[in-house]
Amino acid sequence: MSETAPSHAFTRIAASHRSQVEVEVTHGVGLHARPSVAFTRLAKSFPCTVEVAVDGSGEWLNGKSIVKIIGARIRRGTRLRIRAEGARAEEAVAALSELVRRDFDEDRRHGRADGRADGRPA
Amino acid sequence: MAAPRDLPGRPAAPGRAIGPAFRAEERPVPAPGAPGEGDARAALEAAVALAVAELGELAARSDAESAGILDFQIELLLDGELTAPAFARIERGEAAALAWAGAMGAHIDTLATDGDAFALRAADLADLRSRVLDALAGRTRADFPDGAVYVGRDMPPSVFLAHDWSKGGAVALAAGSPASHVAILARARGVPMVVGLGGLSVGNGDRLLVDGTQGVVRLHPEERLDAPPPDLAVRAPAALLGGQAGGARLFANIDTLADLDALDPASVAGIGLVRTEFLLAEAAEALDEERHLAAYRRIVERMDGRPVTLRMLDLGGDKALPGLVAGDPGSVLGARGVRFLLAHPDLARLQARALIRAAALGPVSVLLPMVTLPQELSAMAALFDEEAARLARQGVPGRRPPLGIMVEVPAAALTLDLFAEAAFFSVGTNDLVQYLAAAARDNPAVAHLHAGAEAAMFRLLDTIATAARAAGRPVSVCGDLAGDPAAVGRLVALGLRELSLAPSRLGAVRAALQGLTGGAPG
Fold first, then answer.
1. How many domains does chain B have?
2. Ranges for the PEP-utilising enzyme C-terminal domain (chain B) (predicted)?
């Protein structure tokens, strides 16, 4: 999968210190425990706020909370919106959407799916 | 070699022992009424951080699959969404361990459904609950060398219970009281104890002789002690009697699994009192349903069909549980016993579930401590009904056990006819006499009033026995009075024929009761 190819599942709204993207979850199961850890750890490595919303839902959930992420039941085929606000917002959204599109690196790094970028919590 | 010197105190538990002194560090006693919110918050933060560090170390040396699970647990602990409710409870004045256990219990009920991959697993949350509770308890757990003489101002029961006394040793306290819980434990375990020694100028490692019979501690003793004579009265013929003695039925009080292991089940009619707050003396245990059940199962299985009466956690008053409830002798008139349980329904429900599950294993009854009004019994009965129904829905085997009440508050003792819901009564003479005489049992200055109130006590016991008979409910006596050879004859004469006492008292009481009936066994 190309790193930059935009598609119907990948649109970006750029703004200063504010960024939003929509991405389709293609991972085999969805965001169960391990992918959720990868997602929240990567989200927490950025200083900006990170929020996610599932499909058409207007409810934005804290993207740095594993309780919220796993509770959102983000399955394969779910259209996930990710938005960030604050310092490095655009970078955060890009990195997180890439993580989703890479299927959380599970194929390559089975087990420690804590993200290739700074996976430790800040 | 320094010359021997006698330090006078008061006897609290009989026997003599020699050993090196172990000076307990004095911990600041929290001021009564001050919940110490800042302390509790800092304690929980530190415990969570410790748990995260432990999980991190564990993950680093685990295989990939396990590490993934541990990483998930770490991420949960680092999530403010998970920890915020616990801190909110601390702000409302709860102690750290109770706040954590209660908040995690609520998460398990609301978040965890083991149905699919997207649910938080109850097992993960329960695991985290225990790990953080252990971390909280770890800071307060301090054992001392085997065979040592514990020297301190007072001694928390949990410290006494965590220690292995089979290698000898004794207790010497500057303050304390022969009527304190730790003294009751020491007498039950046969550990010599002297209290009220005042300022003790004893160094760590100094040789001490503790004479708990005379109430004296000798510094730098010259004598050596022979091995203590075995308590001949406790054992041999008792096994033949099956708990029958002089028209009475004898039951054992159990505080620990060590007490249970030392007891010959055939020598008693059953277990009349398990003080679960001593059985599960660490917050991490008291807040873990599975550990409750494991301990209860041990007791029920060992008693092999004989009745077992488990008393719900009697916390508050002078009984502390580090991290869960601070001990405060001033609160013996406050939120303790069933009052504490009803004010902390998370804890009560957790224990109720374990008791219901244990009741499926054998003849288990449940005793409620410090009941004052019938409404308290009704509230607890409703709680048991709800938990029994919940377990049934979950397909967990259980049986709603009969509920009885401790008769230890005078208001209840005088109105037993109003407690129609009680399946049985058990008289706690230690607390009853302290409330009857308005004389705190931990205060040496008023201790003589306990003995002086004996006439009032026996009049009230007569009233209790009569009311229980009229209501057709069994009544037993489980306080120290039931283990006093000089008193048991009078109890039996009042019709109080079920006595539950410390195993170490069985021999002496049996002998006294048989003396009443001309020495014939039976």
1. 3
2. 249-514
Question: B440-492: per-residue pLDDT in tens?
Answer: 877 778 888 888 899 999 999 999 999 999 999 999 999 889 999 999 999 99
Please, what is the Cα angle at B182 between B181 and B186, to 5 degrees?
120
Q: Which of B64, B65, B81 has its CB closest to that of A62? A: B81
Provide the domain limits for residue B213. Answer: 5-25+142-219
Asked if B350 and B290 touch (Cβ cutoff 8 Å), the reply is no
DSSP A45-100: TSSSEEEEEETT----EETT-HHHHHHT--BTT-EEEEEEESTTHHHHHHHHHHHH
Q: What predicted TM-score, i.e. pTM, was given to this entire model?
A: 0.64
Tell me, what's the ipTM?
0.74
Give yes or no: residues B342 and B455 share one domain: yes
In a domain, B521, yes or no: no
Distance, in Å, from the CA atom of B260 to the CA atom of B264, rounded to the nearest integer, reads: 8
Nearest to B68 among A67, A71, A112 (CB): A112
Q: Are A37 and B75 in contact (CB < 8 Å)?
A: yes
Q: List all residues 6 or more positions away from B395 whose beta carbon is below 8 Å from its beta carbon.
A: none
- Using the beta-carbon criterion (under 8 Å), do A70 and B120 form an inter-chain contact? yes
Q: Which of B47-61, B74-88, B128-142, B174-188 has the lowest mean pLDDT?
A: B128-142
CATH of the domain at B156: 3.50.30.10
Structure tokens at B432: 């009853």
Contact A33 B117 (CB under 8 A): yes
> B79: distance to nearest CA of chain A, Å?
6
Task: Mark yes or no for CB contact B63/A111 under 8 Å.
Answer: yes
| CATH architecture designation of domain A11-105 | 2-Layer Sandwich (3.30)
Query: Which residues of B does the annotation mark as catalytic?
Result: 181, 478
Mean pLDDT of B115-134: 73
